[in-house]
Amino acid sequence: MTGSTAQGYAFDNASDQAGDHHDALGQLLNAQTRQFIGDLIDLPGTSCLEIGAGAGSIAVWLADQGAEVLATDIAPQHIPARRGLTVRRHDVVTDDPPGRFDLVHARLVLGHLPRREQALRRMIGALKRGGVLLTGDYMVAPGAFVADAPDRRTGELLSRYLPAHVRALSAHGNDPEWPHRAPAAFAAAGLTDVSFRLHGGSWRGGGAGCRLLLAGIPQLRGALLEHGLTEDDLTATTAALADPRLLLNGFLFVQTSGRSAEPADS
């Protein structure tokens, strides 16, 4: 989906950049996602729902741990076939929960959805009693975006790029403040044992974080141009993000978890 007036997820699984996008996200986020899931639930023998599964890297890992996994996406063509893994097209905003699960996981989903509260209710509705919901979303890290650049002009360009990137995503319905509000929203929806973790760090030019931004530029191009950048800016930004001399203050990945309340007599 492209254009700043479009509402919905900004990155299309059918795009030419989808493979690079999924690969970069896996390198950036899989280790901490697996760690948090492992701390929350003993996976063998459990049932898991992976929402917005993308290329299926976490869904495959869950199945490898001995869970029965249903992996869903509005465009599930990149999710591989696997023993213990069922793939289904499903829209968490409009479709009823596809069952009840011990774990419901959604990464980089809620922050992008204009109707995120409705999606959150459906996620919670997919939990068994005592089941765990875990979501994760990006937010901009505090401080300067550019930690080091090969020259002043590049630093100034990337400093202008970041707010345009945020506004471009917001035009598609992304809420950059959602990670701040998620714990309170989980508690208000009746989840217990709510907690969150943050992970961040530097992104080097040519590394996974900058490759994630590079994969997004063609899909956000129209909105980026509408929000103050020029074609020359985008060309220069593409070159800068591939330059290993560049060091950015990468986005913070915020994971929020909660547990469905047990029956009173449990």
UniProtKB/TrEMBL annotation:
Pfam families on file: Methyltransf_12
Gene3D superfamilies assigned to the protein according to its UniProt record, in alphabetical order: Vaccinia Virus protein VP39
Record domain Methyltransferase type: where: 49-133
InterPro entries: Methyltransf_12 (IPR013217), SAM-dependent_MTases_sf (IPR029063)
Annotated GO biological process: methylation
Entry keywords, A to Z: Methyltransferase, Transferase
A molecular function GO annotation: methyltransferase activity
Name of the protein: Methyltransferase domain-containing protein
Native source species: Actinoplanes philippinensis
